[in-house]
Amino acid sequence: MKNFAIKLVRVALILVLAFFGLSGLVYVGFRLTLRTARASLRSHPDPVHDYAGAISRLQKIQASEGPELNPVCHSILLTHGMRTEKAIIFFHGYTNCPEQFRELGQLFYALGYNVLIPLLPRHGVADRKVGNLTPLKAEELRDCADTSVDIACGLGEKVMVAGLSAGGTLAAWIGQNRSEVNRVLLIAPALGLTRRAGTRVQKVMALLLPLIPDIQTDWVTEDPDAPTHTYTGFSSRALGQLLRLSAATFAEAVDRAPKVQDVALLTSKYDDAVSDFISWQLINLWRNKGLFRLAGVDFPKRMKIEHDMIDPTQKNQQTSIVYPILVRLLEAP
Hints:
The chain has 333 residues and is an alpha/beta fold. It has one domain: Rossmann fold (3-Layer(aba) Sandwich), CATH 3.40.50.1820. 44% of the residues lie in helices and 13% in strands. Helix 1 crosses helix 6 and helix 2 packs antiparallel against helix 4.
């Protein structure tokens, strides 16, 4: 019995040491990933200074959007034919496409805005296969964010940015990096995944998801309620790249104040797809660096506002409630 107890203690010690060793490796790996992401995902601004230049640059992007796309998923520009007082960029969510924001974009167009709704990289392909997302890189998302702001600078005297989910991650990165923008609105941003996962789990996911074999959920099941302009599942590797962009944003926020000093955050307690806890961690980093203005709305759980609170074609949608809140947050003086 004594020998068995000694062996049991030894096994326990080995397991404890293995746990702490693995934790140490994960921590070191995450710090290296964070440092690499920060270095490779810096902004490269090249803003356009006039309306004609903005249109020219956008046309080049639209020309690169090939016939493989769903016709409704091309980048959208709603323009008054000249530079307006305000321009707004709407970034759609992960697996969706610009069609998601078309109705909301038309609302802001009617308010006098020039509206840009860019197609995120690897999205919008007509065959709707999740494998289209697998090659996605955080650098592509960074370039999309940078280029969209560059174009919007020529579309309006003041530039607003709003994004949902993955688009909210791009909006957060812009908030940290692009001083040309006047206001950013983060709508249920995908800065961290799942409501209940803490920061340690988020760090592990940011480290491992880009490295492990891709998990494509449409291999197992497809979302029967997915609108016809969206993919029917997600790619784990693409999610890992999205988390790289989030990690780069956090890394900059630790050391530097956000370039955009007017921020709004819209979340829902009913949303279990992303972590609002992680979103508030970023907001608090910005606050500690002197963020000038913050507005926030958090829909209570009883209202049942789902993660995709934008796309009018989503099941159980409540845009009649959400859209007026968005207008108020973006139009606030």
